[in-house]
Amino acid sequence: MPRRPRPPVPEGVPAARPPRPRRKRRSGKIAQRIVPFDLHPVALREELIELGDLFRAYQQRPEPDLVELSELHSRKAKAFRTWAEVTGETELRLEAERAEQAAAAALLQHQQRTGQSPAGDGQVTSRLLPGLTQWDHARAILAHVAEHTPVPGAEARLLAVLLTLRSALTGTGNLVGQDVRGLPLTDPEELIGRLVESGWLSFPGTVEELLASRPESPTPITIPSLMPGEDGPGPFVFGRKTRPKLSGWAQRVVGDKKLRKKKTGADVRLLALALAVRTSADGRLGADGEGVEVEPLAAWCCVEPEGLEALVEQLTVADWLTDAEFTADGLLRGRLTERVLPVSCPLA
Predict the structure, then answer these.
(1) CA pseudo-torsion sign 195, 200, 206, 211
(2) Cβ neighbours, 10 Å, residue 270
(3) How many whole angstroms separate alpha carbon 345 and alpha carbon 128?
(4) Residue 113 and residue 107: Cα distance in Å, rounded?
(5) At what angle do helices 66-87 and 90-113 cross, to 10 degrees?
(6) pLDDT band for position 70 (50/70/90)?
(7) Is the pLDDT of residue 281 over 60?
(8) Confidence of residue 120 (pLDDT cuts 50, 70, 90)
(9) Which tens digit of pLDDT belongs to each residue from 20-55?
(10) Contacts from 290-294 at CB under 8 Å and sequence distance 24+?
(11) Predicted model pTM
(12) Rounded to whole angstroms, how far apart are CA atoms 189 and 307?
C-alpha cells in the first residue's frame, strides 16, 4: 500500500523541536551522608554537594590551612542547620553543632600557632612568643632549670634561668654586668661564685670583672652541661633565631616594670614565669582554666606551699594576677591580667 504523503506544514508555524535531553543531576556525599536526589531548595543541595567536594579536596592538601578549614566547617554548620529545618531530623542539627565547634577549634588553633588568641570581648592578644612550638620550648627550659640548678634557693634558680637562656644551644654565651644587676639578688657576687665552685658555670677573669663588664665588651660564659656531646646536640634543639626570642621573653617577664617597682623578690619573679606558661588561651590558670597545683608551683618558687599565698598576693598587687583563690583540693585558680597576656604561653 503506497505511503501517504505528509501534509505540508502551514507557513509561519515553526517545526516541532526535538525533545531536550534531561540534565542529569549531580550526586554528592558529605559527612558520610548521601545528599538526597530530591532535596529542596536546590541551592541547599548544591551547597552540600560542593562542601563535600571541598572537604575531600582539603584532605589531599600537603599542608593544613586552618583558616580555610574553619571556614569550611562554618559553611557546613550553616548548611546542616538549614537541612535540619527542612527535614526535621535531630541528627542533622547535632551535626551542625559539631561543625560549629570544629570551626571554632580550628580557628583557635590557627590563632595559637600565630601567637594570637582570644582575650575576651572579641579582642585578640598578640603574644611575644608566636606559637605552640616556642611556648613548649619556654616550658622545657624552665623544667630543665628546675632539675639542674646546682645551688638551692630562689635567687640561684632565677639567675640560672637567665644564664641557661644565654647559653642554651652551644653551652656558651655572653653576659654583661647589667644582666645580673637587673635581677633581685641579695649578693650576686657570692651567688655567681657558688655557681662557679659547683662546676656548673665558668668564665675568664673574676666575678668582679664580670659584674663590671659592659655591652661593648661582654664576658663569655660557659655552662658545660649545655654543650652538645659527641653523639648529638645538647638538651635543647630549637634554632639559633629562637634562643634570643626566648631570652627576651624571660627578661620581659622577670623585668616587668610593676614587678620592679614593687621591689618583688626572686621567688615572686619565679612565680610570674611559672604562671605565664601555665594558662589557657584566655589567661586563666591551667590548661582549661581549672587551676594549677600548688605543691609543684611552690617547689619551683623554692618556698613551702603555705608560703605561696604571700607571693600570689604580691603578684595581685603588681597587677599581674587577678581573681586568685586557693581551693580545698590544692589548686591555685585565677587569671593573668590583660596587661600581661602578651607574655603568656598557653597550654595546648
Answers:
(1) negative
(2) 26
(3) 9
(4) 10
(5) 170
(6) confident
(7) yes
(8) very low
(9) 555 556 778 898 889 998 888 988 888 899 898 898
(10) 290/331, 290/333, 291/327, 291/331, 291/332, 291/333, 291/334, 292/331, 292/332, 292/333, 293/330, 293/331, 293/332, 294/326, 294/330, 294/331, 294/332
(11) 0.68
(12) 27
CB 102 within 8 A of CB 72: no
Cβ–Cβ under 8 Å, residues 273 and 159? no
| Phi, psi of 44, deg, nearest 5 | -65, -45
DSSP states of 151-196: S-SHHHHHHHHHHHHHHTTTSEEEE-HHHHHTS--S-HHHHHHHHH
Q: Copy the grid coordinates of residue 262.
A: 614593687
Residue 245 pLDDT greater than 50, yes or no: yes
The residues that bridge with 34 in the sheet, in sequence order, are 29
CB distance 84 to 90 below 8 Å: yes
Give the closest residue to 156 by CA, choosing from 193, 131, 123, 129: 193
Identity (one letter) of the amino acid at 52? G
The contacts of residue 41 (CB under 8 Å, 6+ apart) are: 86
